[in-house]
């Protein structure tokens, strides 16, 4: 492998790698604004200045590829001076509203200003102001905080596949806005807030709900479709405040869709059933388990399992029916019109898949057949679901049968069931899922479940055991 030297350290590189990537490998962080590894390189902001031996002027590290024998300095006097000059320019028009800005604590402008800016400004002119356009339900815009890095414009064109953000006017009058001031069209708009290095584009769903530094972070997987985008659930005090994408170059790169980003809301919705319920009445767990036992006895059953459940939950259900209800049939369900992974095709050229559940592939790996193959059903049907599977698509097929729901259900769905036993959502459990590519991934528990709901494994254990006394979760 060829080698170059960065701040006195010899580093190997692959041909084509830029100095930012190579320096990072050597443990040297070069500050950036316009550069993003998932977007084209434009070298506009001039924040990533480095000094390269035998080159007369400072160079931008994002647009310079490493070369054999290259000697790079990232901390020399000219570099420090150059970056301070860039910061001074970038802050000419920036308001002093960090204390009330939602980006504070995770703002590249704040961090780079602290790390590389100068304490003195020579600027005496008035700062410019803007009337902001309405960018739709996902993103709020504060143009006066913009540093014209054009990451947002490039994201639209290069990733979301929609040319909807533009720079109009030039110089001091430049305005980064949407075409004709229209609201954003993309279904991937949340990424604009992630990539904006300042508080110019922020997520409406998260604005002013929690300071960024107070959030705890759990690395997990989105359950919104079979893509299995890697993401982080950010939470505090057992409340989820937002979900953001995590880098996985094999699956979602740096991005996630808005549907997946906002999906967590149903887990905290006031309509979610959090106590066992018989008919329209909430009951205790002791009564619920006894009623369940009385109704299913040891008869063969039809059991429907959502393809939004984890491998462990599906295995537990298969084991339980095999041992306690011999002759039962188990079918998976999830998305209308998508019964097999062969039918699970991409919805767009970005990320979204047709299957709205995360583990269709996993259910198939366990040999569970699709609900489409169900010819008849037992009088009592158990319906297990994790929250994303389309329950109404199966309950409407089973009119006249007594349906018992075990899993994550809303009050609206409860009408189809004679009884509901509430269980854990994807934010409250650990488990394994397989995405549409067959890649095995892990769900991680982010928050503690309410003590009135129980894991499917516990519900099955209590149902199987004639003597166990029911306690709190
Ligand atoms: S809005 Fe944000 S991402 Fe877009 S150009 Fe301005 S600073 Fe960059
Ligand atoms: S594409 Fe699918 S897995 Fe990825 S964020 Fe969207 S819903 Fe979630
Ligand atoms: S990060 Fe290199 S010029 Fe902007």
Task: Tell me briefly what this model is.
The chain is of the alpha/beta class.
Describe the structure.
The strands form six sheets. An eight-stranded mixed beta sheet has the order 14-13-20-19-18-15-16-17. 44% of the residues are buried. It is an alpha/beta fold and 473 residues long. The mean pLDDT is 96. The chain has helices at 19-25, 77-90, 108-116, 151-160, 190-195, 258-262, 285-296, 311-324, 360-365, 391-395, 411-414, 456-464; strands at 3-6, 9-12, 49-52, 59-60, 71-73, 139-141, 165-168, 175-178, 201-203, 216-221, 230-236, 239-245, 277-278, 281-282, 302-306, 329-333, 369-370, 380-385, 402-407, 419-422, 431-434, 440-443. α9 (360-365) links the parallel β16 and β17 (369-370). Among the domains are: 3-90, Roll (Ubiquitin-like (UB roll)), CATH 3.10.20; 269-464, 3-Layer(aba) Sandwich (Rossmann fold). The structure holds iron/sulfur cluster (2 copies) and FE2/S2 (inorganic) cluster. FE2/S2 (inorganic) cluster binds next to loops. One iron/sulfur cluster is lined by residues 146-152, 176, 196-198, 200-201.
Topology summary:
Elements: E1 3-6, E2 9-12, H1 19-25, E3 49-52, E4 59-60, E5 71-73, H2 77-90, H3 108-116, E6 139-141, H4 151-160, E7 165-168, E8 175-178, H5 190-195, E9 201-203, E10 216-221, E11 230-236, E12 239-245, H6 258-262, E13 277-278, E14 281-282, H7 285-296, E15 302-306, H8 311-324, E16 329-333, H9 360-365, E17 369-370, E18 380-385, H10 391-395, E19 402-407, H11 411-414, E20 419-422, E21 431-434, E22 440-443, H12 456-464
Parallel strand pairs: 1-5, 15-16, 15-18, 16-17, 18-19, 19-20
Antiparallel strand pairs: 1-2, 3-4, 3-5, 6-9, 7-8, 10-11, 11-12, 13-14, 13-20, 21-22
Helix pairs in contact: 7-12, 8-12
The site of one iron/sulfur cluster has 13 residues, from helix 6.
């Amino acid at each position: 492998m060829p080698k170059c030297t960065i701040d006195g350290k010899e580093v190997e590189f692959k041909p084509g790698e830029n100095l930012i990537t190579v320096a990072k490998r050597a443990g040297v962080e070069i500050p950036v604004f316009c550069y993003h590894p998932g977007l084209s390189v434009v070298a506009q902001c001039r924040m990533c200045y480095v000094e390269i031996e035998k080159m007369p002027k400072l160079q931008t590290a994002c647009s310079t590829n490493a070369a054999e024998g290259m000697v790079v300095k990232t901390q020399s006097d000219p570099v420090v001076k150059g970056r301070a000059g860039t910061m001074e320019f970038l802050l000419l028009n920036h308001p002093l509203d960090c204390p009330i800005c939602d980006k504070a604590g995770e703002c590249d402008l704040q961090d780079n200003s602290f790390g590389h800016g100068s304490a003195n400004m020579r600027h005496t002119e008035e700062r410019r102001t803007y009337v902001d356009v309405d960018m739709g339900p996902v993103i709020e815009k504060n143009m006066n905080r913009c540093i014209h890095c054009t990451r947002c414009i490039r994201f639209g064109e290069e990733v979301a596949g929609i040319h909807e953000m533009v720079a109009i006017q030039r110089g001091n009058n430049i305005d980064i806005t949407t075409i004709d001031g229209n609201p954003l069209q993309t279904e991937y708009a949340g990424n604009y807030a992630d990539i904006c290095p300042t508080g110019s584009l922020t997520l409406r769903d998260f604005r002013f709900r929690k300071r960024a530094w107070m959030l705890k972070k759990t690395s997990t997987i989105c359950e919104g479709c079979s893509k299995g985008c890697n993401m982080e659930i950010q939470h505090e005090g057992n409340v989820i405040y937002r979900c953001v994408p995590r880098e996985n170059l094999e699956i979602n790169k740096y991005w996630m869709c808005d549907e997946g980003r906002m999906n967590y809301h149903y887990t905290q919705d006031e309509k979610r059933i959090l106590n066992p319920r018989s008919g329209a009445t909430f009951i205790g767990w002791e009564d619920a388990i006894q009623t369940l036992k009385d109704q299913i006895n040891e008869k063969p059953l039809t059991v429907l399992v959502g393809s939004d459940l984890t491998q462990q939950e599906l295995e537990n259900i298969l084991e339980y029916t095999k041992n306690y209800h011999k002759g039962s049939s188990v079918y998976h369900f999830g998305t209308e019109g998508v019964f097999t992974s062969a039918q699970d095709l991409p919805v767009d050229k970005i990320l979204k898949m047709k299957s709205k559940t995360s583990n269709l592939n996993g259910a198939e790996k366990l040999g569970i057949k699709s609900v489409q193959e169900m010819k008849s059903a037992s009088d009592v049907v158990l319906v297990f679901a994790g929250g994303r599977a389309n329950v109404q698509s199966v309950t409407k097929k089973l009119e006249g049968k007594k349906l018992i729901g075990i899993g994550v259900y809303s009050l609206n769905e409860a009408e189809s069931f004679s009884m509901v036993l509430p269980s854990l959502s994807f934010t409250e459990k650990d488990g394994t899922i397989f995405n549409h590519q067959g890649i095995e991934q892990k769900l991680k528990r982010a928050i503690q479940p309410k003590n009135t709901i129980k894991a499917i494994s516990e519900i099955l254990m209590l149902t199987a055991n004639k003597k166990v006394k029911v306690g709190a979760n």
